[in-house]
Structures are given as structure tokens and as C-alpha cells.
Amino acid sequence: MVKTVFAALTASLLLSGCQTYQSQTMRTRQSEDQLIQQENQRRMAGRLETLEMEIGRVSRELDMLQQTLDSRYSALERKTEQDKRETVSQLSTKVEKLLKQTAPAAPAPAASASQYSGSGYEHVVQPGETLSAIAKAYDVTTKVIIQANRIKDPNRLSVGQKLFIPE
Prior knowledge:
Elements: H1 2-102, E1 120-124, H2 131-138, H3 142-149, E2 162-166
Antiparallel strand pairs: 1-2
């Protein structure tokens, strides 16, 4: 019976030793897993920091590019405005020369005041105006304007030409 007790006691000690060994082995594996996870977290944190720094660098580059574009756009707008003014100036000069070359002879003197009650209006012909439109604006007939100004060809009015419009 002693042998049986001894055998049971020995088996019990051996089993408890195995459990202790297994427990230590499991703790060691858990500790290793934790270390691996901590290392992975450190790596991820390093990658994240690198990405944040890269985002900051790209953001600064974009800001500098935006400033460059804004500056170039402003310069282009100024140049465009300057070119417009120069073009308008050149065209105005050419138009003035052409108008002087094609200007009609001085308009015929207005009819005598006795013929048209002595009062009326002076009208300067504007681009696109017709004799009928002028007559309508002053509520007179085209015939009255033609006679008052001794117009030979009513279809040929000149821009800047002065007309007497009787009342």
C-alpha cells in the first residue's frame, strides 16, 4: 500500500511539475506575443509619423505652388489689361485717321429761321443712327430735316455730322 501511495504521490508531483512547466511555457509565449505586438505598434507609429511628415511637406509644397500660381495669374491679368489698353488706343488712333479721311464736307447751313419758326435743335449723328430714327426721336418728318439741312442723299449720314432739327 505504501507503494501505491508513493506512486500516487510521485505521479501527483510529476503532474504538478508538468502543469507548472506548461504554465511557464504559456506565459513565455504570451510574453513573446506581447513583445511582438509592441514591436508592431512601434513600427506602425513610426510609419504613421513618417506619413504625417510627408503630408506636411507636400502641404507646404502645395502652398508654395498656389502662391506661385496666384502671382503668375495676377501678372497675367495686369499684362492682359495693359494689352487691352494698348489695343484700344491703337484702334482709336486708326479710327480717328479713317474718320478724318472719310469726313464729309461741312454740312449745308441750316435753313433760314423764318422758314422754320426760328427755333429748333442741333443733333450730332451717332454711329448706327438713321434719318428716320432721328426724325422719330424729335417728332418731325424726314422731309423737314432733309429740307432744313439741304441733304442731297438721305441715306448717307456721317457720324459726327450736325443736323438742324426744326421745331
